[in-house]
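Quick one: co-fold with 5-azanyl-4-oxidanylidene-pentanoic acid.
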Amino acid sequence: MRPVQAPFPLTRHRRTRASSAIRALVQENDLGVGDLIWPVFVCDGTGVEEPVSSMPGVVRRSVDRVTEAAREAADLGIPAICLFPYTDPALKTASCEEAWNPENLSNRATRAIKSATPGIAVMSDVALDPYNADGHDGFVVGGEIVNDETVAALVKQALSQAEAGVDIIGPSDMMDGRIGAIRDALEDRGYKNTMILSYAAKYASAFYGPFRDAVGASGALKGDKKSYQMNPANSDEALRLVERDLREGADMVMVKPGLPYLDICRRVKDTFGAPTFAYQVSGEYAMIQAAAQNGWIDGDRAMVESLMCFKRAGCDGILTYFAPTVARALA
Ligand SMILES: NCC(=O)CCC(=O)O
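Sure, here it is.
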């Protein structure tokens, strides 16, 4: 694109910014409730809504409360909800078998939501960290996060989620070869319409801190995730990973975190044209909320602006903890 313009004063850019009517006419991007995926935290118990202190406004919910929240989200027009379990530490082991237990929290919540509100899409998380005594997304053997053995476990986890009725499988683990392995297994078992939204470009980021509190993983993690999550300095590598995951059968791809990585979103969208999502992660959410609580920024405006920026960067949708709040603001 090569914009052409007459010299000043023949062109006055402020003409098209002079009133809200004209600003609306020339607006290039839109944020709608249909762009939102709402990540929620699921915990044990009944009637539980437990605040996450590092994420003001976010709670962990027991399955009954998540089911109610999903119904409310669907009523607001939010198309999808993404489940993250807060696993009882007693169930975290080195072999991570709770990850593919048909009765684990995530699978129970999926079944409850799909039976109460079949219209909302349920997305799941595929990774071993909620179930791993070491807090890593893969098995740890002799200090190494082993790839191929982990992929075999992720396949079992994904199949248990598909069996529970998940619409969108979300592998967030960053092992190599997991998308192809999960896709083959889904096809073999007849889950032909189960989608995969691959966390294709997931960076080893400091912005995940509050999430680890929310799922009780902060204390568990030994070491860091730099041998499988991406180096924040890299951009071309993201394109290679997205291409690989699309070739292995991903329906949609994700960039994570969001706002600090909008350049990656734009490159991914422009290069592949695939459905592209960004995850506005817990640290991004917490920064906006903390500044708003201190009166340093207007939280509602910053929320909408930050989400609009994802659309401007080419994203088709955003995973955001703000989903219900922004849905109400847009209504
Ligand atoms: N696999 C999911 C995450 O790591 C979420 C991170 C965040 O919200 O900070």
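If it helps, The pocket of 5-azanyl-4-oxidanylidene-pentanoic acid is lined by residues 125, 172, 208, 211, 281-283 (CB under 6 Å).
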